[in-house]
Amino acid sequence: MAKEVQILTVEDDAPVRNLIRTTLKTHGYRYLTAANGNEALMEASSHNPDIILLDLGLPDLDGVEVIKKIRTWSNVPIIVISARSEDSDKIEALDNGADDYLTKPFSVEELLARIRVTARRLAFMQSQEAEENAVFTNGELRVDYAAGTVTMADTPIHLTPNEYKLLVMLSRNVGKVLTYKTITQEVWGANWESNMASLRVFMASLRKKLEQHASGDSPYIQTHIGVGYRMLRL
Amino acid sequence: MDEHILVCLSAAPSNQSIIRSGAEMADVYHGVFTAIFVETPSSALLSPEDQKRLDENIEFARVKGARIERTYGDDIAHSIAEYARLNRITKIVIGQSGPQTFRLLPQKTLTDRLMEQVRNAAVYIIPDPERQSRAQRHKFFAARGRKHIAKDVLKSLLALSFATVLGFLFARAGVSDANIITLYILAVLIIAVMTSGWGFGVLASAASVIIFNFFFTPPFLSFHAYDTGYWVTFGVMFIAAIMTGLLASRLKEYAEQTAQRAYRIRILFDTNQLLQQAEGEEAILEIGGRQIVKLIGTSIVLYPANEKGIGSPYLMWPQDLKKPLEPGSDDKRAAEYAWYNHTPAGAGTGTYPRAGRCYLPAATRNRVYGVIGIPREKIEIGSFAFSTCNSILGECALAAENDKNAKEKEASEVLARDAELRANLLRSLSHDLRTPLTSIYGNADTLLHQEEKLTDQNRKEIYRDIYDDSVWLINTAENLLAVTRLTNGQVKITRQTELIDDVIDEAIRHVDKKIADHHLTIKPSEDLLLADLDPKLMVQVVVNLVNNAVKYTPAGSEIQISSGKAGHNVFVSVADNGPGMSDEAKARAFELFYTGARKIADSRRSLGLGLALCKSILEAHGGRIDVRDNHPRGTVFTFSLPEKELAEER
Questions:
Q1: What distance in Å separates residue B66's CA from the closest CA in chain A?
Q2: Helix A37-47 crosses helix A63-71 at what angle (to 10 degrees)?
Q3: A139, B50, B378, B405: which could form a disulfide with B11 (CB 3.0–4.6 Å)?
Q4: Residues of A in contact with B470 (CB under 8 A)
Q5: Of all helices (H) and strands (E), which one includes residue B630?
C-alpha cells in the first residue's frame, strides 16, 4: 500500500535525521534527506516527493519561507516538525500552507501515525482529481454538496447552516489541520477572535451530532488545542 | 542625596547678597539651586520702586543659575516650608527679618516661624547689613474693593449714631458722662470687630471723641469745651478707645487666622488620609479634585498629565450643581502652560488670562501629575482658598510620586525574586538532571560496547530504563518551559476561549504512559464548559495532576477526572484512591521545590516543580487550585477558573 510513498526529510540535526531515516526505512517508505532549506528546495523540485517532513528551525532559511517557496509550484503535503513549543510558530506554518505538524520531542509512533494520515489524504486527493467531487464520503459520513445533505451510516443528520458550513470546510480539507483563524474567517468573515467561543460551541455540537449516529468509536473531527481542527480521513 | 538649595526672594535691596550666598552654596555642594518668591495678598501693594527692585532681584537670581519659582500664600513662612517639604529642599537661605513693627500682640519674625515649620532642611540666615527697617505693610484697610469699604463706613456710622442716640437718653436720664464715654468705647469695640483692618477702629475713636465733645460737653453742639478738665477726659477717652479698637481688631484677626488654619488643616488632613489609601495616579488626582471641589464648593476641570503632556480633561462638580461647561481652547492652552512651566496660568494670572479658569499644576520638582482648573470667580490668586488648593495639589503630586516610586521598587523586587527563583531552579536542575542523564549515558554506553554480553532480558531492561528516563526528562523540560514562560514576564499568557473537555482530552494524550497500569475514568460535565485560558499551560496543569496521581499511587489504583460548573467558575478535579497525603504535605504541596515525604512509586526524585507551576498558572488565570482528601482514601486536586459566559448570538 504505502510502500510507494516517497518522503523528503528536512532536518539539520543529524541524530534526529538518522532516527527519522531509520524509522522510514524499517517501515518500507522510500526516503530522501536534506540538511538545510536550500538543499530541501532542490530535492523537492528535482525528485517531487509525495510528503515532506520539514523542521522549522533550519540553519539557512526559515522553515516558513521554505513552505512558501514550495507552495508556489507544488501542493505536496508538508508536515512541519517544530522544536519550538510556541503554538504561534505552528499556526504560522499552517496558515502558510503546511498540512500538519509534529512537536519535538515526538515518539516514533506519533511520527508514523502522522505519515499514515497524510498518505491517506494524499490517496484521497489523487482519487478526487478524477471525479467531480459533488459528493464527499469518509467512512460512514456522506456529504452531498449539491443537495446540501449530510448522512451518517445512512441516517440523515440535521445541521444548522453554520454547522453545515463548518462540516463542508473540514471535509474539503480532509486530513489537513485548519487553524481557528482560517475556519472563523471562512465561516464568519472578519473579526475572528471574537467568534472563538461560538466556534467551540458549534464544533462541539457538530461532533456530537456526527458521533451520535456513527457506529465506530473513532472521532471524525480532531481538536488540536491552541491550533485548530482537522477532519480525519478514515 | 543631592543637595537642593532654596533662596527666598524679596524686594529688599539686601536680597542680592542672599541670592549670591545661595548660589555659592549651590556651587560648593554641586546642588540644585532654586529661588522662590512667595506672593502674598499684600504683594499687590508693592510700590513701583519695590516692584522694580523685586524684578531686578529675580533676574539676578536667574543669572546666578537659579530656577525661579513663584508660590502664592498669605503666610510666607508656611508657603516656604511647604515648598521645601514637597521639593525635598535640603538647605534654605534667607535674610534676617526686619525689626518688629508696632504690634500690640507679640508676633514672631519670619525667620523664627520658618525655623519652626521647616523639618528636614537646614535654614541659613544671612545677616542684613543695611537692616533697612522695612515696615511690613499694615492692613490699614484690609478690605479690598469699594463695596467693602462702603459697607464698613456704614457699619461705623450706624454704631456711632446708635451710641449717640443712647447717649442722649442717658444724658436725659441724668446718667453721668463717664457712662456715655463707656458707650462710645463700646461702639469703637463693636466697629473694630465688625470691620476689617484696624483703620475704622482708629477713625471711630477719633470720631467718638469729637462727637462726645460736640453733643455732650457744654457748650453743647459745639467743638468747644468750657471745662479744661474735659480735655483730659478727651485724651483718656481717645487713648482708651484706640487701645480697645486695636486690641479688638487684632484679636479678631487672630481668631480668623486660627479658624482658617484649623479649616485648612482639617481639609489637608482629610486629603492626606484619603491619599494614603489611594493607589495609582488617576485615583490620587481624583481625590485631590474632589477635595478641592469640597473646599471651594464649585466645579473644577482636571487634566491628568504625564511626562509627554496633558491628557483629555474631565469635569468634577458638586452634586447639587449642574454639569459645568466643557473647557475651551484657551483653557487647554492655559493648562498646557501650567503643565510645561510648573506655574499657575489662566484666569487671574498674566498668562492666558482669557481662559475661563485658573489652572494650577500638581507638581513635584520632577514632574507635573495633573493640572486642575478652578473657575475664575471662585478663586483669587494669593487667597486662602488658593494656597490651600496649592497645598492639596502639592500633596497629590507627592503622593503620586511616592506611588510611582513604590511601584518601581515593587517591580525591581519582583525582578530580584524572579532572579532568585531562577537561580534556585538552576541549582536544583543541574543536580536533578544528572540522575536520569547518568542512567541514559551509562545504559547507552553498555549497549554500544558490551551488547554481546547481555542477555535478552538485560537488554529489554536497559531499553526500558532509557525510555523511562527520557520520558522523565521530556516532562521536566515541558514544566521548565512553562515556568520560564510564566516567570519571564516577557511572554504573556495568551488566552483564548477553549472547551474544558478539549483541554482534558489533549492532556490525556500527553500523560505518562504508565497510566495504562491504572484505571482512568473521565466524567465530563453535561454542559459545555468554556473558559478563557492559555491552552498549553492549562493542558500542562492537567498533565501534571494526572502524572502525579500516576506517580504516587500503586499500579491498579483508580484515577478519575471530572469537570463541572460551580457558580461562575468551571472546575476540574483529579481524584485518586491511593495512599493520600499528610496534612503537612497538603499544606505545603504547592510550594516550589517541595518534594514532600511521599513515597514515590518509581523512586524517581521529583523537582517539586509540577504543583508549584500549576498554582502559578492558575493564579495567572485568576483561578485557584486546592487539595483535599478523597473518601474513603486518596487525594483530590481541584482547580477552578472563571467561566466564559457565551454571548447569545445563535
A1: 56
A2: 20
A3: B50
A4: 105
A5: none
Minimal Cβ distance to A223: which of B481, B497, B505 = B505
Nearest to A225 among B474, B502, B646 (CB): B502
Instruction: Judge whether B496 is closer than 8 Å to chain A, CB to CB.
Output: yes
Instruction: Provide the shortest C-alpha distance from residue A59 to chain B (in Å).
Output: 23
* CATH architecture group of domain A2-125: 3-Layer(aba) Sandwich (3.40)
Size of interface A-B (CB pairs under 8 A): 51
Instruction: Find, in chain A, the residue whose alpha carbon is nearest to that of B530.
Output: A197
Q: Inspect the interface and report whether the beta carbons of B649 and A198 lie closer than 8 Å.
A: yes
Q: What is the pLDDT of residue B146?
A: 67
> Under an 8 Å CB criterion, which residues of A touch B?
85, 87-88, 105, 160, 162, 180, 193, 196-198, 200-201, 204, 223, 225-226
Position A8 pLDDT exceeds 90: yes
Contact B528 A85 (CB under 8 A): no
Class of domain B4-126: alpha beta
- Please state, in angstroms and rounded to a whole number, the distance separating the CA atoms of residues A61 and B565: 48
Most A CBs within 10 A among B497, B505, B526, B648, hence the mutation to make, goes to B497
Domains of chain B, residue spans: 4-126, 146-256, 278-406, 433-488, 493-650
B502/A contact by beta carbon, under 8 A? yes
What residue spans define the domains of chain A? Answer: 2-125, 132-231
What single-letter DSSP state applies at residue B452? G
**Topology (CATH level 3) of domain B493-650:** Heat Shock Protein 90 (3.30.565)
Contact list in B for residue A193 (CB cut-off 8 A) is 496
Rounded to an integer, what distance in angstroms lies between the CA atom of residue B337 and that of residue B371? 10
Could you report the per-residue pLDDT of A74-125, keeping only the tens digit for each? 889 999 998 766 678 888 999 999 999 988 888 888 899 999 888 888 887 7
Helix (H, G, I), strand (E, B) or coil at A137: strand
CATH topology assigned to domain B278-406:
Beta-Lactamase (3.30.450)
Look at residue B575 in the predicted model and tell me its pLDDT: 94
Residue B11 CB coordination number (10 Å): 20
Instruction: Report ipTM for this prediction.
Output: 0.79
A226 and B496 within 8 Å at the Cβ level: the answer is: yes
Q: What is the three-state SS of B366-428?
A: CCEEEEEEEEHHHCCCCCHHHHHHHHHHHHHHHHHHHHHHHHHHHHHHHHHHHHHHHHHHHHH
CA distance A85 to B474: 12
- Per-10-residue mean pLDDT of chain B, 650 residues long, equals 83 85 87 84 72 83 82 78 83 73 59 82 77 46 63 87 88 83 84 78 84 82 76 82 81 78 80 84 86 82 86 82 77 87 81 83 85 81 75 87 88 77 68 80 88 86 88 82 65 78 89 88 88 88 91 90 91 92 84 63 62 84 90 92 70
Thinking of the domain A132-231, which architecture would CATH place it in?
A: Orthogonal Bundle (1.10)
Quick one: closest CA in B to A201, which residue?
Answer: B528
Q: Residue A225: list chain B partners with CB under 8 A.
A: 498, 502-503, 505-506, 535, 539
Q: A196 and B496 in contact by Cβ < 8 A? A: yes
Chain B closest CA to A14's CA: distance in Å?
18
CA distances from A191 to A96, A120, B577 (A): 20, 34, 47
| Distance separating alpha carbons of residues B292 and B299, to the nearest angstrom | 9
Asked whether the beta carbons of A57 and A34 are under 8 A apart, the reply is: no
The span from the CA of B289 to the CA of B396, in Å, is 9
- pTM for this entry: 0.53
The stretch A38-59 carries a mean pLDDT of 91
Q: What is the widest separation between alpha-carbon atoms in chain B?
A: 152
Residues 6+ apart with CB under 8 A from B45: B137
Strands B91-95 and B122-126: parallel
B512–A contact, CB cutoff 8 A: no
pLDDT value at residue B606: 67
